[in-house]
């Protein structure tokens, strides 16, 4: 018999209380001497509780070509033809045809701010599209071009979220403003012309909406002429056979193809995923202890749950905002207000979307304001439970943000779980070997070509 959510909630709370109290006991059931097989058993039990009875299957990603089991937008069904097109367009610097300066033409792509080496997010505190110069090894070497002043730079006002596992996000952006359903049902009055959320009127979910608005917002385009020029016309025809030709080669269809590709970006080769599928040696004992803390007395899964260890929730945990000291342009006041900056609701101020947790080992910055530079710093911050941002007073803080009283050893184990068990080290499988324009990617400026060792075709 399946327990109701209410009864599961009572059971979870009760068990968490027992686990938390046990942390101070000398006979703590989770210790460095607990056998690996016993850790496996305890973790399986913890996952059964955290998933409200679903068990380990609740956390398993599908394969990236198992389209029927990947969460998708019913108005943009996943197909092989569409995803193949999107994979190329995501990396296509040839779409960069609307720059503010002529020298920026054909020098950037979606992957400029979402590259695989950094876990499909920016390698810098802020992503830079047009006006960026260089790449480095994982995007960390991209800097503002001296010929661009701040008003011309395409630079993000907040840390760039990852595209990894975005299939499990129905609303996107840190404030969740993109996506026509779920959290945004009832906010239609805010979808005004000229705003990013205006694209919600198309009726798509978050990933699709973001991909569509992202092309025009970041000075890219798709037209019948571009599709013909670069050789994408036949791919669009195969991906969108039901669209009339007059609507087939546009930023909307290009965005839908990109979103299709993004939904296949799953960290399904991470150690935790292998463990869930039966390879118990895929996680070390320290990582297993860390997982037990994550799903137990660390209370992490109260916000981070499901396959991507993310939810549709928003939480105010007092992290600092992006400041101008990081790059040439600081964060905007609205982006620093979180969900409340979009909705205007006071009780949602400073609440940001709960992010997914895979491949954080690749991330150089953490928090919406890039105020942390290591995962350990984030865990220690949450363990202290003291807000970093003076603007986020007790009135706004999520009640779950409180001192966790984890020991140093527990913090060590939790970091190991997050860094290594949730790390898929083979994300390069999602990068195409080339694109149809023959331009270098993810960037195509002269310094990036040198950094990437790329010679345009």
UniProtKB/TrEMBL annotation:
User: Where is this chain's protein located in or outside the cell?
Assistant: Cell envelope
- Tell me the leader sequence span: 1-24
Q: Does the keyword Iron apply?
A: yes
Domain of life according to the entry? Bacteria
- Does Transport count among this protein's keywords? no
Q: Where is the Cytochrome c domain positioned along the sequence?
A: 285-422
* Coiled coil regions, renumbered to chain: none
Name the InterPro entries on file. Answer: Cyt_c-like_dom, Cyt_c-like_dom_sf, Cytochrome_c_Peroxidase/MauG, Di-haem_cyt_c_peroxidsae
Which Pfam family name is an example for this entry? CCP_MauG
One GO molecular function term?
Answer: cytochrome-c peroxidase activity
Chief site of localization: other
Record GO cellular component, one term: cell envelope
- Keyword tags: Heme, Iron, Metal-binding, Oxidoreductase, Peroxidase, Signal
Name the chain's protein. Answer: Cytochrome c peroxidase
The species is Sediminitomix flava
């Amino acid at each position: 018999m399946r327990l109701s959510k209410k009864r599961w909630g009572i059971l979870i709370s009760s068990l968490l209380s027992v686990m938390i109290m046990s942390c101070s006991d000398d006979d703590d059931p989770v210790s460095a001497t607990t056998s690996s097989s016993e850790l496996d058993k305890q973790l399986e039990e913890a996952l059964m509780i955290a998933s409200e009875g679903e068990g380990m299957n609740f956390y398993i990603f599908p394969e990236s070509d198992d389209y029927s089991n990947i969460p998708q937008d019913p108005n943009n069904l996943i197909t092989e033809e569409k995803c193949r097109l999107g994979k190329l367009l995501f990396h296509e610097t040839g779409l960069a045809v609307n720059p503010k300066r002529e020298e920026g033409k054909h020098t950037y792509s979606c992957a400029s701010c979402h590259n695989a080496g950094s876990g499909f997010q920016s390698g810098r505190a802020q992503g830079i599209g047009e006006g960026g110069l260089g790449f480095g090894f994982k995007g960390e070497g991209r800097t503002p071009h001296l010929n661009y002043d701040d008003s011309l730079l395409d630079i993000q006002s907040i840390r760039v979220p990852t595209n990894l596992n975005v299939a499990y996000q129905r609303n996107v952006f840190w404030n969740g403003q993109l996506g026509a359903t779920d959290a945004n049902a009832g906010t239609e009055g805010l979808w005004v012309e000229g705003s990013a959320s205006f694209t919600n009127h198309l009726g798509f979910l978050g990933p699709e909406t973001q991909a569509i608005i992202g092309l025009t917002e970041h000075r890219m385009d798709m037209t019948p002429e571009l599709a013909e020029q670069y050789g994408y016309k036949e791919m669009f025809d195969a991906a969108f056979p039901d669209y009339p030709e007059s609507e087939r080669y546009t930023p909307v269809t290009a965005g839908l193809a990109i979103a299709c590709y993004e939904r296949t970006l799953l960290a399904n080769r991470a150690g935790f995923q292998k463990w869930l599928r039966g390879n118990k040696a895929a996680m070390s004992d320290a990582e297993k202890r860390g997982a037990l803390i994550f799903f137990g007395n660390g209370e992490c899964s109260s916000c981070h749950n499901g396959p991507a260890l993310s939810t549709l929730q928003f939480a105010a945990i007092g992290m600092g905002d992006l400041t101008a000291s990081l790059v040439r342009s600081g964060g905007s006041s609205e982006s620093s207000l979180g969900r409340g900056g979009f909705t205007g609701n006071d009780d949602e101020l400073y609440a940001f979307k709960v992010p997914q947790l895979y491949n954080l080992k690749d991330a150089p910055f953490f928090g919406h304001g890039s105020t942390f530079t290591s995962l350990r710093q984030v865990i220690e911050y949450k363990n202290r439970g003291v807000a970093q941002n003076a603007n986020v007073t007790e009135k706004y803080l999520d009640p779950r943000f409180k001192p966790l009283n984890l020991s140093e050893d527990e913090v060590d184990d939790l970091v190991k779980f997050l860094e290594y068990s949730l790390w898929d080290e083979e994300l390069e499988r999602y990068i195409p070997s080339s694109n149809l324009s023959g331009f270098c990617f993810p960037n195509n400026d002269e310094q990036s070509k040198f950094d990437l060792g790329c010679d345009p075709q």
